[in-house]
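All the exercises in this workshop are built on plain-text protein records. A record pairs a protein's sequence with a compact description of its fold. Read left to right, the backbone structure tokens trace the chain's path through space. Once this layout is familiar, the rest of the handout is easier to follow. Here is such a record, shown just as it appears in the course material:
>
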Amino acid sequence: MSYTLLMDLLFGTYRQRILGVLLLHPESSYHVRELALMTQTSAGTLHKELARLAETGLLLREKQGNQIHYQANRLCPVYGELASLFRKTTGLGCTGGNLAIPCRQDRGGAGVRFRRAR
């Protein structure tokens, strides 16, 4: 079975990228621009997608100063199943995963770098 095809069928490209980061790192919250850098998407499109996902309760939205941060909502009834699906399809349930994981130097996003999952 092609997991890429399955994910493409279930989720659009932007949504896959966003959820891949947020669901697999539920302890972290991210600013829109930080997520845009991490997922290589435009901040405008990303903002709309994040707002829609927050409206459903899948994401938490929190204002921190003049920034809005998003984080996976672990209390959402489908969080566990969706996170499991992303772990399986991104290879993190196996050795040699391929998801980029953020490495931060500061919370402003200026020091965002990526490393491959181990």
User: Anything to note?
Assistant: The domain at 3-116 is CATH 1.10.10.10 (Arc Repressor Mutant, subunit A).
